[in-house]
């Protein structure tokens, strides 16, 4: 048999694609590295060139599902036609979807048995979002819309709080409780950033009132 030589990125993508299909079909718990290797058409040793273990590839698969939203946030961050408050409101609207997506893989992530991977996903997401939030907060300071001395730390504080508070895999709350929490986050975020009252409109409220959660 002729050995097919592929570019490393192409080979890595083959593994991710095979793993994604298997995780959706069989579930994370019932999928073994040997299954992924067989589906990707590679040797066992090749898998470990790219990933440490099954958990590592699952995290990569999960992270890929959020990249479209992350890119949307970056696109908003780079827009020149919006001020910082407008950007922040739009970013929060898109970012909220990361936690509330109905994707099968995200739902598996919320299972108690996958709590370790779930925590790593949240941490990785925060690391990706901090530079985006920091940039917008710094813009707001320059525009006189925000009054904050520590933009990066403010971004970290806001993201750590909201990523845990609104993650349905961590806190299971009813509609009424979510509405109250969302309104409270609006007020707290305005105080942290030193922005004017009612300037930050959390999209959580809109989602909740439409019954989309």
From TrEMBL:
Please verify whether the record's keywords include Transmembrane: no
* Top-rank lineage group of the source organism: Bacteria
- Quote the protein name from its UniProt record: AcrR family transcriptional regulator
* Keyword vocabulary terms for this entry: DNA-binding
Q: Does the keyword Nucleus apply?
A: no
Task: Give the Gene Ontology MF terms in alphabetical order.
Answer: DNA binding
Native organism = Clostridium diolis
Q: List residues traversing the bilayer.
A: none
Residues in domain HTH tetR-type?
9-69
Segments of the chain annotated as binding DNA? 32-51
